[in-house]
Amino acid sequence: MAFTLGTLFDLRRAGHKGIELSAVCPDGIWTPMLEDKLEDPDAAGSFSGHLLTPTEVAVAVGKLTERPRPILILPRWRGPLLRTFDLFPRLGLRLLPTVMWDARRRQRHYKRKIESGLWPK
User: Fold this and answer.
1) 54 preceded by a cis bond (ω within 30 of 0)
2) How many other β-carbons are positioned within 10 Å of the β-carbon of residue 38?
3) Coil, helix or strand at residue 113
4) Taking 70 as the threshold, does the pLDDT of residue 121 lie above it?
5) pTM of the model
6) How far apart are the first and last CA of the chain?
7) Residue 121 lies in a domain
């Protein structure tokens, strides 16, 4: 994000208004790379949010051509949540065990969805 925002600032300062830049910050994206992590307890953090499909991310990125914005966070609710943890790091540390408990629960949930054929491969 810092590179994107810094470069955009430099472009605007130099008078270039026709160039748009966007930092895309999605939650986890379901790819084959995650499939072999369904039983890895050390990878549970990758399942802490809402796993997006590549198509969902592509659709959102495509909309940037119509309405450019410097930062795109997917899903949108994740941005304010992360900003809250940035402002109150002690709160984030206190909630970490709960977040990781939920991440492991979600990891098991995705494993069941894959095994039952309800989630795309």
Assistant:
1) no
2) 19
3) helix
4) no
5) 0.79
6) 30
7) no
Please report whether residue 120 resides in a domain.
no
Please give the residue range of the domain that contains residue 94.
2-115
Q: What are 86-118's pLDDT values in tens digits?
A: 999 999 999 999 999 999 999 999 899 888 887
Tokens for 58? Answer: 């592509």
pLDDT value for 115: 87
Which residues does 74 contact at the CB level (< 8 Å), separation at least 6?
24, 25, 26, 27, 52, 56, 57, 60
HSE toward the beta carbon, residue 119, CA cutoff 13 A: 20
* Number of separate domains in the chain: 1
* 3-state SS class at 24: strand
Contacts of 84 (CB under 8 A, 6+ apart): 91
The CB density around residue 26, as the number of other CB atoms within 10 Å, is 19
